[in-house]
Amino acid sequence: MPTDTVGRFMAALDADQREAVGAKPRAEQEQLAAAWERELEADDELDTLDELSPPAAEAEAARRVLHREAG
User: Fold this and answer.
1) What is the pLDDT of residues 14-30, one digit of tens each?
2) Are 69 and 17 in contact (CB under 8 A)?
3) How many domains does the chain have?
4) How far apart are CA 49 and CA 56, in angstroms?
């Protein structure tokens, strides 16, 4: 299991997202990972999901961050 923020963020992505993010420069990956961490910390709804399924909460936060970035 990855211990750095980018590695944990990448692990939360599905295969297609992981490939797309993996093609981005490291600095951009770090920015996305930081936004993902903020999303996990700030959203109370994700706290509830995290209690039930931490991987599902991490995946949902990753989805939200990528959706905002694409928007």
Assistant:
1) 999 999 999 999 999 99
2) no
3) 1
4) 7
